[in-house]
Write a structure and sequence with these properties.
globular, Rossmann fold, Nase/OxRdtase_comp1, six-stranded mixed sheet, Nitrogenase component 1, disordered N terminus, 38% helix, 3 domains, alpha/beta, four-stranded parallel sheet
Length: 452
Amino acid sequence: MLDRTPENFIALKNIEGQHVGIDLPLNQAHFPVPFYQGLEYPPPARGGWNIVHIGLTLPQAHLIFVCPEGCLRGVVLSAAELDLAQRFSTIAVGEENVLEGDMEAQVIEGVSHIIEELPQRPPAVLVYTSCIHQFLGSDIDLIYSQLRQRFPDIDFTDCYMFPIMRKSGPNPVEMMRQQLYSLLTPLPKDQMAVNIIGSDYPLPHDSDLYQLLTRHGFSVHEIGTCQDYAAYKQMAASSVNISILPSAIKAGELLAKNLGQTHVYLPLSFDYGEIEARLAKLCATLQVPYTPDKEAVAQAESALKQAQAVIGQTPIAIDYSAGPRPLSLTRMLLTHGFNVTDVYADAFEVEEQADFDKLQQLKPDLMIHPTEDVQMRVASRKRSEKTLAIGQKAAYFTGSDYFVNIIEGDGMYGLSAITRLAHLMTAAFETPKDTAALIPVKALNWGCSCVL
């Protein structure tokens, strides 16, 4: 049996090459999953978006969760903390429903009752069934066919609260991002309209991506900027969908299949060459010319130089919740003179392979830590020296009040993202935050309020 006591955190690797413990030098890490996947610990850094927040970005839609009461506690808090309980309802599944076998009837009648009691009829309803419905083989198709017959003026889509799917198949966030666009129906295509899909935050107007599109005359549409449900439905008229997060790929594939829209995946990166290659790929798809922006490169370099002059060799810790490419960010900062000492990530995206390999040469003693391993609950969260954290989980595990409060890249993209991040790092280094007050609140990070 493996010794999991605090005195023996650094244990031997298992036969699959995965490490059992809470810290590991990069040169001993296994890609893409460096740590043993077992019993998990959810750290109280709750600022990341979940399936509730994603669903709430659909304007004017009403969300209904059908789950056992224990599961409902978390989702209710997600809506209540954002003061959006008026767009959110629940149906509690009890033991009697399981024993009596009336799961389908409970959903149909419960959803019907909620709709009839709402002060205003919503144009769309997202119904979330849960693990219990799958365990019992509930007839989901029957449920939705009945609801659509009863309420032909409402668009219904099936959403899922399936923690059991976290490690196999599309995970809950991937599935939610996909279903968020499932209510779009075919429209004549506008060749000068483009959608940004699957992002939690609207694309900043100073972003390389936004600037490139608008400079060539394209209109940019995002669910987070739609003022009403009618504007959301118009997204079906766009000719191209752009996704920048791995969890949005399936949404892009669904829209390509259902609506005939072209899907372009442009993963986030902090490498100048990669950024230019992604933008060049987009321009080729749109059949417009691409010219590298040398001024944007100069601005990014200047911002990094100024930030490094302020931050110096202060240790920097980065976690995956700040963005899906922590190793790309780490590599960029290290090559610009910053002292990145720790990365918190349970696994890495496939796009990180080149960064992983390069960092093994550049900084082989870079420490990698899991965030969900059960042993992290008793890991020391005190640092003897000031640490700058990028991401809420890094702030929590290092005990630092000096942190950059961003989630999923904060909508940033391209060279402008590097410039902005350098400014955010400087501000975070100079002005401490109340970490204990900020990170327990769900979706409390830059940009959340403007979307929801």
